[in-house]
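Board notes, transcribed. Complex of a protein with nicotinamide-adenine-dinucleotide.
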Amino acid sequence: MTKKTVRAGFIGSGFAARFHREAIAKVYGCTVDLVGVFGRTAKNTQTFAAAHGIDVFDNLERLLDQVDVVHVLVPAAAHEEIAIKALQRNVFPIVEKPLTGSFGDGSNGFDGRTADRAQIRDQALASVQRMLHAESRSTAKILYAENWVYAPAIQKEREVIEKTGAQILWMHGEEAHSGSHSPAYGHWKYSGGGSMIGKGVHPLSAALYLKRVEGRARFGRAIRPATVTARTHCLTQLEGYVDAGHLRADYQDVEDFALIHVVFDDGTLATLFASEIVMGGVHNWLEVCANNHRTQCNLNPTDMMQTYNPVDKQFDDIYVVEKIGTKQGWAKTAPDEDHAHGFVQEIEAFYGTVAHGDAIESNSQLAADTISVVYSGYLSAARGGAEVEVRQFDD
Ligand SMILES: NC(=O)c1ccc[n+]([C@@H]2O[C@H](COP(=O)([O-])OP(=O)(O)OC[C@H]3O[C@@H](n4cnc5c(N)ncnc54)[C@H](O)[C@@H]3O)[C@@H](O)[C@H]2O)c1
């Protein structure tokens, strides 16, 4: 049988574009026709297009008019506009995390650390509402690119929860490393915050997802976040911080450490950490403490492979593991990091939705709950960690 062909477009040609390009090359449930790429910086876009043999578009709308699905691979501040334009054309937007946010007034003087957090939260929720509204009027759906949902460790835990009828009592987890590569990161006006939105959304969405899974399995309805308590800190900006050169330390107006404590509507808990101050590779994990089992989901590092390298230089052209500071000595080398992170499975699943109408695990409701927790969390942090209600959008 001939495979169905899905026409795809890329918006953005940076870091995320590279791993999305690799993942679509592995899609097997349909044929992907990558029509072209549109980006803000002509030179970078042309370099990316030349490397992958695809056309450059100098007009967003013209690209959207020629595709079935569009990968939104730009800083979060531009997600809403592009996703809504796609939905208006019944084109499925694959929106990289975070779904959207609040980015201030656009002025250079804007400082996310001191801005009015209630206003910031309301702006973020209004942006979510506009995206959900556009989705409700479209035949296409938002595909929320949260790779943690599709990571093999999280999907195996889904099976455990569904088949054992588990009640999750507490989850704790983390995403951390020694600092983002993106120059835009560190400016609230581009990223909508710091560690909490940039990294915290990963373990947070995974935790929110697993409580949804539990609710579906036990009662036929999702268990949702009810309140959040959060703290944020700017450790590398402390007056007394001693910069030894191993951590990125040029953040403009965002936090580099966040703690998010969620209480769900059944009274159970999730506690997540996110930071830019952890050396030795990324630290991505989620532990589930349930009434009938305990699970540790290790996304990175994992124990699948370990190498000992006595001479740093001899591994010069060998990829070891994300954000490792040195290749000398023992390393938890990743034989297939994209698979362990769920990138490949995520893109396969999304193309299954576009081509065959498959149900979406990481959907707009999960994305909306994530944004609602994060920006209520920013309000909580501004109030010294006071508990703040999480506003829910209809499921
Ligand atoms: N899932 C993950 O683990 C993961 C990892 C990295 C980044 N991301 C997400 O991917 C998205 C992009 O991040 P990145 O690291 O690739 O950033 P990047 O800075 O490397 O690349 C961003 C690209 O977007 C382009 N761009 C910026 N504004 C634009 C606009 N208005 N219209 C068109 N193009 C525009 C830039 O020219 C650049 O090509 C972000 O939402 C980020 O959170 C996800």
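The mean pLDDT is 96. The chain has two domains: 5-145, 152-341+358-389.
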